[in-house]
Amino acid sequence: MKGKFENWMFGCDTCQDVCPWNRFSKPHREIDFTPIPAILNLSTKEWESLSEERFKQLFRNSPLKRSKFSGIQRNLRFLQHESDHQ
């Protein structure tokens, strides 16, 4: 996967960007789609030092939990590897 992450840790945003059905979307007030406040401003270092317990707590109701803690850690390593070579 080297060089393929383009600074994305998780792919849901990419899927939303390319989904042809989203051209019909309209602003809404659906509370379930509100970003998790605790993660909006996490630095790279904070993401990297996130414990598995905290990850499970933060993302228990999030699609991010599908990737599991180990998957997010792997993706962060890919991103770190990419930034080291830029």
Structure report:
With about 90 residues, this protein is mainly alpha-helical. Helices cover about 40% and strands about 0% of the residues. The protein is globular, with a radius of gyration of 15 Å. The mean pLDDT is about 85.
Total number of beta strands: 0
Low-confidence stretches: none
Radius of gyration: 15 Å
Which structural class matches the secondary elements? mainly alpha
Sheet of most strands: none
Strand content: under 5%
Number of helices: 4
> SSE order in H/E notation?
HHHH
Features:
mainly alpha, 86 residues
Q: Quick recap of the structure?
A:
The chain is mainly alpha-helical and 86 residues long. It contains four helices and no strands.
Write the topology of this structure.
Elements: H1 12-18, H2 44-48, H3 52-58, H4 68-84
